[in-house]
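Retro notes
What went well: the complex prediction finally ran end to end.
Inputs used:
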Amino acid sequence: MEHIRLPKVENVRLLDKVSPRRSRVGTFYLTATHSIFVEDVAGVRNETWVLHSLVCSVEKQSATASGCPLIIHCKNFQVHHFVIPLERECHDVHLSLLRLSQPESYEELYCFSYKPNVNDEEKRQEWDFLDLKADYSRMGLPNSLWKLSPINQHYKVSDTYPADLFVPESASPPVIVGSSKFRSRGRFPTLSYYSKENHAAICRSSQPLSGFSARCLEDEQMLEAILRSNPRSDFMYVVDTRPKLNAIANRAAGKGYENEDNYSNIKFQFIGIENIHVMRNSQQKMLEVCELRSPSMSNFLEGLESSGWLKHIKAVLDAGIFIAKAVAEEGVSVLVHCSDGWDRTAQVCSVACVLLDPYYRTLRGLMVLIEKDWVSFGHKFTHRCNHQVGDPKEVSPIIDQFLECVWQLMEQFPCAFEFNERFLITIHSHIYSCQYGNFIGNNQRERIELGLRERTHSLWSYLWTNQADYINPLYRPNHSQTQGLLRPSTAPYCFKFWRGLYNRFDRGMHPRQSVEDYLSAIQEETQQLEEQLASHKQKIAQLEKEQGWRSVTQKAATFDKSPTAWVRGNDLALANTPQDYTGGFITSSPCQPKAPDSSLILLPKDLNQSSETSLSNGSDQESGIADLSCRSPLSEDSPRDPDSDEAAYSAA
Amino acid sequence: MEFSDHIKTANVEDVVLRQPLHPPSRGTVCITGHHLLFSDREEGSSRQVLLLLRNIDAIEKRISGSSGTITIKCKDLRVLHLDIPGMEQCLNIAHSIETLSCLDSVSEMYPFFYRPPDLSLHNQWGLSSPEKHYSQIKELHDKWRLSTVNSDYSLCPSYPPAVIVPKSTDDDLLKKVAKFRQGGRFPVLCYYHRKNGMVIMRSSQPLTGANRKRCREDEHLLQAMIDGSDKGYIIDTRSSQQAQQARMTGGGFESKSSYSHWKRLHRQMERGKALQESLIKLVEACGDESHNMDRWLSKLENSKWLSHVQTALSTAGLLAECVERDGHSVLVHGSEGTDSTLLISTLAQLIMDPCCRTLEGFLALLEREWVQAGHPFQQRCAHSAYSHARLQQESPVFLLMLDCVWQVWRQFPLALGFSEALLLRLANEVYASNYGTFLCNSHQERCALGVTENTHCLFQALLRPMERDYYSNPLYEPTELAIWPSVHPQSLQLWRGFFLRWTEHTRQLEEAQEEIRNMVIEWGKLALSDALSMNT
């Protein structure tokens, strides 16, 4: 490929983040889609794969005696620190990576070259797996109050909206078109969620083009129609998710917000979520804190505070709660908008849905929700996730914040969600990886033009096929936490730093044992035992029938306390080594323990190959080496999978 | 003085109790010598709140018109409000609480009166003794002996009568060493590492003073401790500057010239008043209702509590690393050897020794390293985070230890045999208890007051079948390996179960723990019945 200036560099070192003195030497290969580092150890196949579409930045530092450092930051928050012997080589690799990680056209994206072993029929089924119409009919739509409008069939009214939209029964095409002309990018008020219990709805739009005094009769009629389709309510909320100052500033540009005097029976409310630029900077600051090498507790907490990240997460969740309560408790419909209605509006509507409807807390439900409020309503994934070279000011972690809100809720309600943290993290990875077609493009129209359904694969069906990896063993559909509206606390102390995402690849920071995996093993075995027991009972009944009951001396029944499906101790043996408590005082290589039994635990087969590192911080597992013999939950069909660091995760 | 002298009004009716997680209720308040009893008089419900007066850390009273409100702030961080009709009654109740909640005389405290029907005073008191501990570790007997030189507490008032010391040191030598160590706390063995025969000893600081006094016997004792090994480590829980300064007041440290085979490592650990203030600030931050994220994070940081957790765990990690991985014996001390010394020796044992991770093993560890080793509980736990009283000797070292153990449990949820509920229970009991276990400051004091004869033992009570079930970790999977905690800031968390215990937030997390327990029980039952049916 023309962008690869140097396909192979030898004697490259990959540094360990925790203790940079510990490094591995190997060969660095550049391919069209991945960079691959292969460690030079006889008999061991340790490889680190870096997917180019996940590369966020490549930084070449000035050369030192030991070589030229090349630091690769990835969008999944992994950081690779290579040292390349010659500056010239480093320069070439740097330039190649810069180009390869910034595709100039859609055609270069990984999803178009990713070819798992599925036939066309299966591929079509992949894309049919989620059906938004089915979700609307689950809500009870269409009905006498809301109808499916064909008005945007060819994306004529709003080119960033989906083709299928629900509008109030009484909203006539002229009203819709008129209203759309009064809204940024033609994004007129339309339905996002409908509560069939009390007819309250969440609607979304962009800001009105009200300027200082402009009015639009059709827009006013549109809101009136929305209000009327909730027969039990005599007013509705209009929520502007921006800080008031930002909204006022927009008026000068001929945009702005609704004047309460012009619209009948609306209650107008600002909510104050910051814009994409603030969010981008905030996450950047937080990531800098995450990457500090051995920070003190104070460094960390001060950094976290000054990044403002958790404050923004709280703002999004607060807004979601406001809307969810209006719908569930007051039975009042809400119209939500921000400026364009594809960032904050998407966040707030989808958070409200998670709070309101237990369905969206299931595996399938969350996929539907992302497909509905984010993908179909035109969250600009290509721009926000920087899928291809573009304006850096358009990049912003808006979807990250939504996923984090869900995670924060999961932390507060451990039994209320069918999926686990791994599910959110996997979705996050693939939003950025461009491996699947789901998050390519900025809106439905673009996706259709790109022919993504025909040419790429869908993440949703992949996740569904592998759902066993993503089930929360504590989930109980009938648990009191699971029912109806979630009422989270938004006291600041309820918000935690999401280590699992932002420090995902620093394995040393994570719990060394997973309650969740243990419970899943138990759950699996409970099921088996139930079946076994049933069959035993059947046999006994049969025996009794055939030969009459003979008393059998009962042996003391014993059973091993561990579930057999649980691979004991593997994580402990590998990853459990002392931290840097010493501040470098024990400088000699760690002594072999005098008695060998501290490493007695048998290593599971597939991890054997790195057993020699078991005493040296298990670094292979920590830095996300693709252990190819491990089963990879991310992509079984591709043997050369960049993300199979997940394997180490699931083995732990 | 009789308790009744302090009780002018014993009963008040028509009182409204407001407490977290419950709707307000109306009923009768009754004050006894040791308790505040509230009983609900609503039809059909008979809710009672029985509060040990000792558990009350501070009260505030507000009189308005003819009635008053007493706000009761407990050492377990619960805050209750009583709306009491009648100003005089309100003042009387408040006065009784103020007086009775901080009686100084140990023998008047509730453990001396607590007589539950299912416990007998003739039961064994405590789980183990230094004698039993010694006899259990056969490997020790070659080179270590049990000395009863302190049987009359004359060498060290805060040590138990029997201690484990190197065999090659006789009692006369110990007497001299005791004079060279603050409070007489000469180096004694507290842990033997079976995997490599290395040990942890603990002591107080040597009294070298400004003119660098030496003590040959002390040097000999330390040498005997590492007999046959090239070197040992001394972990001093003060910074080297603090250790230098201690010489001005008669204390000091082991100098390289006199203790040539020892390498000193200094780790500055917060102690005493600073630690107490840290707790006060943290609790204050948790009670902040401003809903402001910046303010919360800055208060959390400012309290420094998590920094203390980090330091304690990393110092304990260092200690364990010296023993387990570097293969050397270690002597630990700070200044008095009754606080941070015990904190890190406890945590290091938890990290290294699988025996300390069972329910019994952990309680026995606490008994050895805190109760018998002479942690001055009465002084340290006289007050908790709400008290307005002037701070004296209070310091939440034991609570900090529990928090660190909780962090280890979070990181190794299958490796400990006990549950978070046990840690919470201990955090309560240490401040206010029905049991005698945490009374007094030393073994000597407990003997003098007849604590073992006249009170019940908490540790024994926690091992009764019902309690044992409740305090066991359903997910426990014993492992022989050391469990090395991560001390990255990202790995350490606020102990919500304790500090935010009285919030709705924590209740949902408790439900999840309940769910986990049920799952394991369900699976256990099935596995058992499956095993049974296989055998028939």
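What we learned: Chain B has two domains: 3-103, 130-487+505-520.
What to try next: split runs per interface for comparison.
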